């Protein structure tokens, strides 16, 4: 779009002067189809803010303890009612046994677990699981439960968000994943996730977690009915929260996968590679206070994640062992990417692979040709 050329020049000037970008700048970025210029600008912003050639990944295990959910978000291909044939709720003992078995073969340092909002369990279900996982693997970081799940636990237990989070933290919870944010705009939420908790509750949960010393992650689900304005608004709301509490470790843009959702029947398609790259660039440029932007390879594929490293991303997430949510919605990537492969892709992009823990402490670096 020709109109974006001048607007992008304004964005460039601001980036070079290290000025904060505003809503109109965000819109100019989102409306531009000058993909290479966007990549270059985002990479410039990343470097000017202290970014290096390091690209992070973590070894993690994905678990889902229950796919039973009361909410029925229209974009979700994972959730089921208790009576549906594929519904499951795994006991704490089974879950821990399974994680221990996996640990023998993969040596992960993080467990990432999210679930449906299961109305047939109590808060103890979550608390016992957290405690049991922590006791079985005290050295493994537990990144468990979205803000929606935390809110669900408050309704199950009658406890406040602060109390629920404090009890989970004391049982071994290390951080929260960023899910449940979807798109904050009311218009979109009504269309895709009318039963989901409000954005205010999502922010309240994260703000409370940050206040308790629990770092969290943040996300945006894009590529469905949202406008560019709504994407920019979403990012600016996250930025404002980060100004206030500083507890977000990373932002992960999540592309919508229509398979096995009501939207597949309406003929909706996946986002394009150009849209995914633009989204990474937009995130990096607007979120000047969130240190890490993830190119989530499980969703975009490793080749595209590799290109995204030149559009502002500095993290490729990890050696995800068993991912179910995006695969239920049609992601075709393999569910485990071996360390060697991640290293190869990162190096081929001209970057330095660094294995990290959840809190971005460096565990290993591949400097030479090892
Ligand atoms: S996205 Fe989460 S809350 Fe919504 S239906 Fe799926 S599992 Fe339930």
Write a concise synopsis of the structure shown.
This protein is of the alpha/beta class and 370 residues long. The protein contains 16 helices and ten strands.
* Shape, per Cα inertia axes: globular
Report the average pLDDT across residues: 91
What share of residues are in beta strands?
A: 5-15%
Strand order of the largest sheet: 8-1-9-10
Report the total helices. Answer: 16
Structure description:
With 370 residues, the chain is α/β, with parallel strands linked by helices. The chain has helices at 3-16, 23-31, 35-48, 92-106, 123-136, 147-157, 161-171, 186-192, 199-211, 228-245, 262-265, 273-286, 297-300, 302-308, 325-328, 339-348, and strands at 54-58, 60-63, 110-113, 141-144, 216-222, 248-255, 292-293, 315-318, 352-356, 362-365. Strand 3 (110-113), helix 5 and strand 4 form a beta-alpha-beta unit. Helix 1 packs across helix 2 (23-31), helix 4 runs parallel beside helix 5 (123-136) and helix 7 (161-171) packs across helix 9 (199-211). The protein is globular. Bound molecules: iron/sulfur cluster (SF4). Residues 69, 71-73, 76, 78-79, 116-117, 148, 196 line the site of iron/sulfur cluster.
């Amino acid at each position: 779009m020709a109109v974006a050329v001048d607007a992008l020049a304004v964005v460039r000037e601001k980036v070079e002067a290290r000025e904060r970008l505003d809503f109109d700048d965000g819109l100019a970025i989102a409306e531009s189809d000058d993909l290479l210029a966007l990549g270059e600008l985002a990479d410039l912003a990343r470097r000017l803010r202290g970014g290096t050639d390091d690209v992070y990944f973590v070894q993690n295990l994905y678990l889902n303890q229950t796919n039973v959910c009361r909410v029925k978000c229209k974009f979700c291909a994972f959730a089921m009612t208790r009576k549906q044939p594929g519904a499951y709720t795994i006991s704490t003992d089974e879950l821990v046994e399974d994680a221990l078995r996996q640990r023998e073969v993969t040596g992960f340092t993080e467990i990432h677990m999210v679930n449906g909002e299961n109305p047939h369990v109590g808060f103890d279900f979550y608390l016992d699981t957290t405690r049991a996982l922590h006791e079985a693997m005290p050295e493994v970081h537990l990144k468990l439960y979205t803000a929606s799940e935390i809110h669900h636990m408050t309704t199950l237990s009658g406890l406040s968000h602060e109390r629920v989070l404090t009890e989970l933290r004391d049982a071994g919870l290390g951080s929260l994943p960023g899910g449940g944010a979807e798109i904050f705009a009311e218009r979109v939420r009504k269309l895709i996730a009318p039963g989901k908790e409000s954005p205010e509750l999502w922010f309240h949960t994260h703000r409370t977690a940050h206040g308790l010393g629990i770092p969290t992650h943040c996300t945006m689900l894009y590529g469905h009915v949202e406008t560019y304005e709504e994407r920019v608004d979403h990012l600016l709301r996250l930025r404002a929260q980060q100004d206030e509490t500083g507890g977000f470790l990373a932002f992960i843009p999540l592309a919508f996968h229509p398979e096995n959702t009501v939207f597949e029947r309406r003929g909706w398609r996946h986002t394009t590679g150009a849209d995914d790259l633009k989204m990474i660039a937009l995130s990096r440029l607007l979120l000047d206070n969130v240190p890490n932007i993830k190119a989530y390879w499980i969703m975009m594929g490793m080749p595209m994640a590799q290109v995204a490293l030149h559009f502002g991303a500095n993290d490729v997430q990890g050696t995800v062992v068993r991912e179910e949510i995006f695969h239920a919605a049609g992601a075709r990537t393999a569910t485990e990417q071996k360390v060697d492969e991640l290293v190869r892709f990162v190096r081929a992009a001209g970057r330095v692979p660094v294995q990290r823990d959840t809190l971005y402490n460096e565990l290993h670096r591949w400097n030479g040709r090892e």
